[in-house]
Amino acid sequence: MIKRNQIFWKLSAAFICTILLVLAAEILLGKINSLSSGRYLQISLIITIAVLLGSASAWFFVKYFIQHPTSKLSNEMNKLADGMNKLADKEFDFRLDENEKDDFGMLASSFNDMAEMLSLSQSELEKTRDYLQGILESSGDIIITVFPSGKIRTFNKGAENALGYRRVDIIGEPIEILFADPHERDAAIEKLTQTDNVVNFETRFLTKSGEIRDVLLSISQIRNSTGAIIGTIGISKDITRVSRLQVQLVQSQRLAAIGEVFTGVQHSLKNMLNACKGGAYMVRIGLKKDDRSMFEEGWEIVSEGISSMTNMSTDMLKYVREWKPNFERVELDNTLAEIDRVIKQTAKDKGVNFQLNVPPELPSVICDARMIHTAVMDIVSNAMDACLWKEYTDGELPELILGAYPDDDGQNLVIEVKDNGCGMTEEVKKNIFAPFFSTKSKSGTGLGLAITSRMIGIHNGKFDVDSEPDKGTIFRIVLPIDGTDKH
User: Fold this and answer.
1) Which of 320, 349, 382 is the last residue of a domain?
2) Residue 253 burial by CB count (10 A; 0-12/13-18/19+): exposed, middle or buried?
3) Which tens digits make up the pLDDT trace of 467-483?
4) The pTM is what?
5) Is 200 contained in some domain?
6) Contact partners, residue 202, CB within 8 Å, separation at least 6
7) Which of 70, 142, 242, 427 shows the greatest Cβ crowding within 10 Å of its Cβ?
8) Are residues 229 and 255 in the same domain?
């Protein structure tokens, strides 16, 4: 409304000045006509007065309606430009004078509103920055950001404490100097090219004093608002103490396993030696009485005892040794097909119907193929024995099925060994993986499934066993398709 009133009054003033000039011209022309008879002096005077009046009117018009507003506009625009420069310099407390009630006052008010909004936004940004900075500094983890060039950009307090560097000394340095093996960083970045983040990558950092620290490193790419990569952030957890405790735990478990072995050995050897003593006694009596049948029976008992001790010795070495698996991506359908070729004829000779049931396009698995082959063969052999120990009736025949399939979520591969043999009671099922527990009175050492359990455990796999006496047993080996976290 103010702007409209100002325009109205300016136009009115201009209109009045125009009318005055026209009237003055009319009067002068009339006077000139009436005095044309020779009163030249008066005519000259009148013309001079008219020119002076016109000049005065023109000067007034230009002064107050053109020059003054233009000068005011220039001053206000200079103030506005100065204010914008101050805002650009983050001087958000600057304000323009709002005393004027015209358009310039409205412009100053809008400018001040914008400055207030920017001041509030800047304050919120500073609070957010301080909050995030506080989180980074209070974290005990090693948090480092890196430029795309590979130079260290930020280095938090947790990194200083863990690695011994001061941030003023390390910022701007190549990130590779922190790795015990720079190639491990290259491997992590190679994985990062396939996705925006790499989680729990095991590597080793080198401290300023030369000490090696085991860490779990998670790296993510940093992108700006347009999606362009502007660097990476790495968050590392120092697991040196945990790693050492794990090594000590493994050593303790090995010692405990050795203790279990010797306890079992003492019991098993006692039984085997007693059998050998009995066999030797029969051999001695057979020789003394020249009884060949007693001699042969005694010698068979001695031979079985020697064979059992030999097998137990071999299994003991397998059970207590440190396993060093060779993890690689394996097509397990080939492994199972090899087991099928080895076992099918043996099963047929013993009257057991053996079947291999593997679907096409079985997913490959990261594992040690040799270990998986051994573990599956052991379970298949036990299943065949279970079939031979059962007396089948009503036309039922011994049957053994080896199969494999991915689980419902596609994260694991299940290898299944199913038989319709003698089955197991709940008590037997609880102890089948315990060292030196055996249901084979003569030939078993009780270490077969214990060894198999260790092999599957190394793969972060597990067993699932269903069994019912006189109905049969289902062994399921569940293996992670992508292997363990330590392959």
Assistant:
1) 320
2) exposed
3) 889 889 999 999 998 87
4) 0.42
5) yes
6) 214, 215, 216, 217, 485, 486
7) 142
8) no
